[in-house]
Write a structure and sequence with these properties.
Helix content is 35%, strand content 21%. The protein is of the alpha/beta class. The two termini are 22 Å apart. Bound molecules: adenosine-5'-triphosphate and magnesium ion.
């Protein structure tokens, strides 16, 4: 199994969106894929995937929820409303470690972890405990977001986790009226920072209002940029053969 974290130095840049679509794209390519929403403070993956139920327990193991061909556990769904505020980084990290051991994931090919935003102690401990094989850093093209992407890279380097590359989200917008490409934010920032840091630019994801709506409805659709992202991940982190796993929708 390959464990991939999706991280960002900054909140709201589209980390959960990338994690969900990457996991779905890998599953559609025939790999048995798990998705862990480790963001206990603001879990958004249940909404994005239309998950309403809490995971069940069987023989002291958490049974992941099967949805759209992937296996999902959201740590946020297992906490109560008043709990998260008092939680500290190490407590979250311990919970994550328990999770990794006590969930009946089955024999996964790929395991995608949506980390909480930021590069503080909580994220550092999570990163250390999750025995990651690689990380993807999501950023938007503006310079302020890019500074945070650099911080993200440093965090992973500190714990010797290879950074697979940068995903630039909200890169551009194709107008449905005039079909022209508009660079809403400063263009090419992700590419520049990737070059500067010596890591690949894995994908440029356009601003896509259909995608926002689909995610709000809990019905995400894997579009071409995400398929290409999954292909790049597979190239960088090959799995010998797809698991004996058939999609069940
Ligand atoms: N490329 C995009 N086009 C349109 N909407 C997007 C795009 N990427 C993300 N969004 C929307 O922006 C919002 C924030 O995205 P998301 O929740 O993935 O960010 P995040 O980095 O995980 O945030 P947080 O830091 O709160 O965890 C969501 O409503 C999502 O649907
Ligand atoms: Mg998120």
């Amino acid at each position: 199994m390959k464990r991939i974290a999706v991280a960002s130095g900054k909140g709201g840049v589209g980390k959960s969106t990338v994690a969900v679509h990457l996991a779905l794209a890998l599953a559609q390519k025939g790999f048995r894929t798990g998705l862990l929403d480790a963001d206990i403070y603001g879990p958004s993956i249940p909404t994005m995937l239309g998950i309403k139920e809490r995971p069940s327990l069987k023989e002291n193991k958490v049974i992941p929820i099967q949805v759209r061909g992937i296996f999902v556990v959201s740590m946020g769904l297992l906490t109560t409303d008043d709990m998260p505020v008092i939680w500290r980084g190490p407590m979250v990290a311990n919970l994550l470690q328990q999770f990794l051991q006590n969930v009946a994931w089955g024999d996964l090919d790929y395991f995608v972890i949506d980390l909480p935003p930021g590069t503080g102690d909580a994220q550092l401990t999570l990163t250390q405990k999750a025995s990651l094989d690689g990380a993807v850093i999501v950023t938007t093209p503006q310079e302020v977001a890019l500074l945070d992407a650099r911080r993200g890279l440093k965090m992973f380097q500190q714990v010797n986790v290879p950074v697979l590359g940068i995903v630039e989200n909200m890169s551009y917008f194709i107008c449905d009226q005039c079909s022209k490409r508009h660079d809403i934010f400063r263009s090419g920032g992700g590419g520049r920072v990737a070059q500067e840091l010596g890591i690949p630019l894995l994908a440029e994801i356009p601003l896509d209002l259909k995608m926002t709506k689909a995610c709000d409805r809990g019905e995400p659709v894997v579009t071409e940029p995400f398929q290409k992202l999954a292909d790049k991940i597979l190239e960088e982190m090959p799995r010998e053969k797809p698991g004996e796993f058939h999609l069940r929708w």
